[in-house]
Each structure stands twice: as structure tokens, then as C-alpha cells.
Design goal:
The protein is an alpha+beta fold. The protein has four domains: 61 residues, no CATH class; 184 residues, 2-Layer Sandwich (Nucleotidyltransferase, domain 5), CATH 3.30.420; 191 residues, Alpha-Beta Complex (Palm domain of DNA polymerase); 123 residues, no CATH class. It is built from 24 helices and 24 strands. Helix 16 crosses helix 17. The chain is globular and about 85 Å long.
Length: 697
């Protein structure tokens, strides 16, 4: 279909020639690739169409078009007596609203709209909205001839069936769930697996959407006629926030990665999380190579209830440190259950804790990590902080040792190895979209190898990867301790240490020795300083920061991350910003925090289970809220009603709060922020770190 004045161009069209019409043709092609968003990074497009940077920038993204179709963001609301659907065209900004109620019956216009050549986008639409819309399309004729109340009652009953069904139980409504009346994509299933689902309101909070709004009525009650427009306003707000989420994901490259997978491997990846599209792609390619049916391969497994760890440990794993020798021998005596139901209640499948040189470690089925307290590491003269981590540890183990699901054999290993080398080549050539996509494919395998429902299930092989990964890191720890190094932390795939400059060559030799023994590669970095609150809460100053002041050389994790992560909750970003700035510049946190001018940095939320209500100023409010500590606000409580009455829990014990679900333009100096709360929290972190530093030095 025509778009923005440009005709639809065949994706296999030849590259433009150097004729007088070449520049116009190149611009058309660039616009075409922009509109398709076919997983191509800007540099790739420029190379392909030979378009100067300045000219390309004239065609920067203004609309969202995928699969040559304008994207329509949509959401529905269902009541016993009212059905409503809002659709927003991301290309034009136009809203189309459809209703079935006492006021009007828009069944025919709704069906006709969904029959247009659009790509529909929602949040949790694959399991809910699409089901209802497909039902309306399928039964258009009888619904159109029925009174409104019979239509809404029928739709409401289906809605309740879907809402009340357990995850995976789609038998009753699967005929509408898998109907193919229109093309859609689901941002929820794109972002999260079925075991980890985050609601749209929580997404609104973490992307700083301007209006975090829950519906204040009851979807199971009849909606009064005078409340319909209020409900529609709520529905539009959800649609607008879904559009913002879509744009955010496009900027982050999430759309491009999935379109690359669709382009290259012909799978419908737009509504898949990275693990799912990795599994899907590998199944498809494996069946191509082996000439097997996907339905047959999908049923294959290599189950094993118990794994003797002595059978998975590599023969060259040895240690000089007597404590590590003891850990190794203990591991070899273990026979570890592979399924939850085989593990005694309240216990882990296997965990071993031990202490070496005042550092406590934990090894087990999941991985290795040190158990760290707050510490500051700043190298003295003649010392340096080093970090060595295994390059793509789990994929490298699979490639080097052929630790693939046993029932899939050599063919799967060859496929995996091919993808592994393709990814390396893409990374080296600067094909960032391809590199990211294939990295996600590679990383999907180990998780699926321990999932009973997956065709890659093989606990024995995944135990080989996870157990030996830990033991290899301890081989490096063993050698570093012999050199007199101080181990800062060990976590999953890397070791951080403090060493003497005089021992640098010895450290490099130790790393090289482990590389030679294991056939794995290590990447190394030096740090100017390392501030560790816990093993997964730290920030490090990578060497070179002092000269360049490049913020990318500040590595942050856990509580020190200064950007909100989609769907991961929201803590006040001003606190880690103030702490990091203090250690880098020595500016007092009080001055830094009081001079901050962005209210977003002070905002926070707390997740509240559906069994609780939330009370503020003696009134029940919506369950999910965005707020900041204030000097003139009330306390925020979550309330659980038991047989003996309500039980109250203060959600922020150290301060009253002000709700800010609707962002506004009020000046920050007028907000009565409780600066003392934020300053106190920042100073606590600093003091915890500095006290430990005094003990060290």
C-alpha cells in the first residue's frame, strides 16, 4: 500500500544505479527500509543504498510501520453491559473507538476495521484482547442481529473465561485465541516469559509515563450509562501508554532484533521473548538439517532424575589450595536431584559454602558467587585492580566440549557452532542487530536444557556446563591466591582481584594457563576503583575514566544502576547518582541532591500484591502508585483484610509521601520534597562502604 508518497517497493529490488535518477531512487529505498524496520542498523542501510549521512537523516523515523503495515495500538474493556475498543493509528495519531452498549452497536464497523491491512499491537493482547476480537469477528452475523445486552453478555462471559483461566489452560477458548483474522503483536510476550509477567501499570511507572492510572470501578459490575465516557478516557490512556512502550522498545532495538529473526529465519518473532525466538529458530534450523518433522523433535527429551557430579566434572580440574581440594572432593560425592519435586522442602538441590582468605564463597547447581560485604577497593601505589571473565562462558563450553542435549547429537552441535561463529563475525563487522539477535539465540539454550517442557531438556548436559563453569573460575582463583592476590569477588563467569604491578605478568600467565587447559578465552580489564556493597550491587571505575570522564567507563549493577529498567520496579535514582558522584568528585550528597532539578529522579514505587488494598490519607486508592518522599504528605499503607480485621503495613516508614501518578509541570522547589530522607539513604550507603575501607587499609 502507498505510504508517505512512496510506492511499495519489492524487498528484492536491485540496488540503484548511478544514473541521474539515482539520488531520488536511493532516497526512496532508504525510506522503504526505514518504514519496514527490517532489522537493519543505520550503517547497514547507508552501505546498501550508498546514501550520505545527511540525506539519510532527513528520513529519520516519524511513524511506526512494520511488515509494510501501519501499526495500530489497541486495547479493549469488557463489562457485563458494555464492550469498548480503542484503536490508535501510530502513523496519523487518529483514534477509532468502537462500542457495544445501550448507546450504540459498532460490531460491523469494528470487524471492518480489523479486516484492514494493519498490524495491531497491544499488551497481553494475544491471550486476551485478540481472543475477544476474534470471537466478535467469527460471530459477527448473529451478534449483529442480537440486542446489545445479549452481545455484551456473551462477550463478558468469554472475557471471564479467559481472565479466570490458569496459565497454559486455553482449551475452552483456543479456537478464538489461534484464529487468524488479523495480524497482531504482543509487547507483553515480547518482553517477558510466561513465568514472569509485569502489568501495564508497572510498565507505565518504569518508563515515566505521564499518567499511571488504574480503573477505579469494577469490571464485573454493570457500568452506568453516565460512566462510559470516563471508562473510555481510561482506555485511551492505556492505549497511549502502550504506544509509548512500543516506541521505547523500537529505540532500544527490540523490534529490529525480532524483524531480523523474521527476515533471516522466517519465524513470527515479534511477540516472542528472546528465549522463545531462540528456541523456535533452533528447532526450525535443526529440523532443516536433519530432515525431521518439528512435531516429532518437539517431543524428544533426555530426562535424568539424579546426576552424580563426579560424572560431569572435567578430568583436568585440580587445585593446590587444600580448601579448594576439599570442595572438589565434596562435589564428586554428590548425587544431585534435577527436579523440584525431588528436592526436600526448604532445601536446595546442592550448595557448598566455604571461606578462603577471608572471602566467603558459595557453589551450587545455579552458579558460583562470593558472599560480599560493603567494601571499597582503591589500589595503592604498585597495585592494580583486575577483572577476568570468560568470554561467552556457556556458549563457549557448548562449542568446545559439544555439551549439547544428548538426544540431538552432532547435528545440533554443528548448528550451534555455526550460529556461534556467525555471531562473532557479525560483532567484528559491526552488524549490531545481527550480533545481538544471535547472542540471544545462543544464550537461550542452557535455560531450555533444564526446562522439562522443552525439546532441548537434558539436565545431565546442563550440569556439565554449570558445574564446570564454577570449577574453572576456582582454578583461576587458586592460581591468583598463589600469587598473593586479594580476591574482590567471583560471580557467574568472572573473577575480580587486587594484584601487585610486579605480579602482572604472573597473573597474565595464570590466566593463559587456565585458557590453555580449558580451551576457553578470558577478557580482562583494569579498574581505577571498585565500590562493592554486595556481589550484585556495585559500581566500578574502569581504567581511563579519570582522563576521559566517559560515563560509559562507570560500570553499574544492582542498587547503583541510575536508569530505570522496564518492568523492574522503580527506586529513587537520585540516591545512586548522589553516591557515585560523591566518590568520583567528593561533592557532598546534600548539595548534589538539593540541586537536582528532575522530579523523576526522586520517584519510587512498591509492588503490591492483589490481595492487598492501598490506603492514603484515610482513603483507598489505586493499588499501583508512583510517589516521592515529602514533608507535607501522608503515610502510604498497604492493607490486608483478615478475619480479625485489617492489617496495616507502612510502605515507606521513614517519611510521608506525595502521590505523583500524574506528572505535571510544577517547579521542583514547590514540591516539598523530603530531602532529608534521600540524603540519609545516600549517606548510609556511603558510610557502610567507608567504614569497611578503614578496616582494610
Amino acid at each position: 500500500m502507498p505510504h508517505n508518497g512512496y510506492r511499495r517497493i519489492d524487498r528484492k529490488a536491485r540496488a540503484p544505479d548511478d544514473s541521474s535518477n539515482g539520488a531520488e531512487r536511493r532516497l526512496q529505498l532508504a525510506t522503504h527500509y526505514r518504514l519496514k524496520l527490517q532489522g537493519r542498523v543505520v550503517s547497514e542501510i547507508r552501505e546498501r543504498v550508498r546514501l550520505p549521512t545527511a540525506l539519510y537523516n532527513q528520513t529519520s523515523l516519524r511513524t511506526m510501520v512494520i511488515h509494510n503495515k501501519p501499526v495500530i495500538v489497541y486495547d479493549i474493556e469488557v463489562f457485563p453491559n458494555v464492550f469498548h475498543c480503542t484503536c490508535k493509528n501510530t502513523e496519523t495519531g487518529e483514534y477509532n473507538k468502537f462500542e457495544i452498549s445501550q448507546r450504540r452497536i459498532d460490531i460491523d464497523s469494528l470487524v471492518e476495521f480489523f479486516n484492514r491491512d494493519y498490524l495491531f499491537c497491544g499488551y497481553n493482547n494475544k491471550r486476551y484482547d485478540d481472543v475477544v476480537i476474534n470471537y466478535i469477528i467469527m460471530y459477527r452475523e448473529p451478534l449483529s442481529k442480537s440486542p446489545y445486552w445479549r452481545c455484551t453478555d456473551s462477550i463478558y462471559k468469554l472475557s471471564q473465561t479467559v481472565v479466570l483461566s490458569k496459565d497454559g489452560d486455553t482449551k475452552v477458548f483456543r479456537r478464538w485465541m489461534f484464529a487468524n483474522y488479523f495480524e497482531s503483536m504482543d509487547l507483553l510476550t515480547m518482553l517477558f516469559s510466561s513465568k514472569l509477567r509485569v502489568g501495564l501499570k508497572e510498565m507505565q511507572i518504569t518508563m515515566f509515563y505521564h499518567n499511571v492510572q488504574e480503573y477505579d470501578g469494577d469490571f464485573n459490575e454493570f457500568l452506568p450509562l453516565n460512566q462510559i465516557d470516563k471508562m473510555i478516557a481510561y482506555n485511551i490512556n492505556d492505549v497511549d501508554s502502550t504506544e509509548q512502550l512500543l516506541n521505547t522498545l523500537q529505540k532500544k532495538g527490540e523490534i529490529d532484533v525480532r524483524l531480523f529473526m523474521e527476515d533471516e529465519y522466517n519465524i513470527n518473532a515479534l511477540s516472542m521473548d528472546s528465549v522463545k525466538f531462540g528456541e523456535t529458530m533452533l528447532l526450525k534450523e535443526y529440523c532443516k538439517r536433519t530432515h525431521q518433522k518439528e512435531s516429532i523433535v518437539s517431543e524428544q527429551r533426555s530426562p535424568m532424575d539424579y546426576v552424580p557430579l563426579k560424572d560431569v566434572i572435567l578430568p583436568f580440574i585440580t587445585y593446590k589450595n587444600p580448601i579448594l581440594q576439599g570442595v572438589l572432593e565434596d562435589m564428586k560425592r554428590q548425587v544431585v536431584p534435577t527436579r523440584k519435586e525431588l528436592i526436600p522442602k526448604g532445601q536446595k538441590a546442592y550448595e557448598k559454602c566455604f571461606v578462603i582468605s577471608k572471602t566467603r564463597y558459595s557453589v551450587g547447581v545455579g552458579g558460583i558467587h562470593s558472599l560480599n560485604k560493603p567494601e571499597i577497593f582503591v589500589p595503592s601505589e604498585g597495585e592494580y585492580i583486575g577483572h577476568a571473565d570468560v568470554t561467552s562462558m556457556y556458549p563457549s563450553f557448548i562449542v568446545q566440549y559439544k555439551w549439547v542435549p544428548r538426544h540431538l547429537g552432532k547435528e545440533f552441535w554443528e548448528l550451534y557452532k555455526h550460529v556461534y561463529h556467525e555471531r562473532i563475525a557479525a560483532k567484528r563487522s559491526g552488524e549490531s542487530v545481527k550480533s545481538t539477535a544471535l547472542k540471544l539465540v545462543l544464550n537461550s539454550v542452557t535455560g531450555k536444557m533444564q526446562q522439562e517442557t522443552s525439546w532441548m531438556y537434558d539436565p545431565f548436559s546442563v550440569f556439565k556446563i554449570r558445574i564446570n563453569g564454577q570449577l574453572v573460575l576456582l582454578m583461576l582463583v587458586d592460581r591468583l591466591l598463589q600469587l598473593g592476590c586479594r580476591i574482590v569477588q567471583v560471580n557467574t563467569d568472572g573473577v575480580m582481584y587486587v594484584a601487585k604491578e610486579a605480579d602482572r605478568s604472573g597473573v597474565q600467565s595464570a590466566i593463559h594457563e587456565v585458557e590453555q587447559l580449558t580451551r576457553l578465552g578470558f577478557e580482562t580489564d583494569d579498574y581505577e576503583a571498585f565500590y562493592q556493597y554486595a556481589v550484585n550491587d556495585y559500581f566500578g571505575v574502569v581504567k581511563g575514566y579519570s582522563q576521559s570522564k566517559n560515563p560509559k567507563l562507570i560500570e553499574k549493577k544492582g542498587m547503583f544502576i541510575t536508569d530505570a529498567k522496564l518492568g523492574k520496579g522503580l527506586a529513587p535514582l537520585i540516591i545512586p547518582k548522589a553516591v557515585i558522584n560523591y566518590f568520583l568528585t567528593k561533592q557532598d550528597v546534600s548539595e548534589f541532591i538539593k540541586n537536582a532539578n528532575n522530579i523523576d529522579d526522586f520517584l519510587m514505587t512498591q509492588r503490591v500484591d492483589k490481595k492487598f488494598k492501598v490506603e492514603y490519607a484515610d482513603k483507598y486508592i489505586q493499588r499501583i502508585n508512583r510517589f516521592y518522599a515529602s514533608t507535607n504528605g501522608h503515610y502510604l499503607f498497604k492493607v490486608k483484610h483478615e478475619d480479625d480485621g485489617p492489617h496495616y503495613s507502612n510502605m515507606l516508614t521513614k517519611s510521608g509521601i506525595t502521590i505523583l501518578n500524574k506528572l505535571d509541570s510544577k517547579p521542583i522547589e514547590d514540591r516539598k520534597i523530603n530531602y532529608s530522607y534521600y540524603i540519609s539513604e545516600a549517606r548510609k550507603i556511603i558510610n557502610d562502604l567507608k567504614c569497611r575501607q578503614l578496616e582494610l587499609f
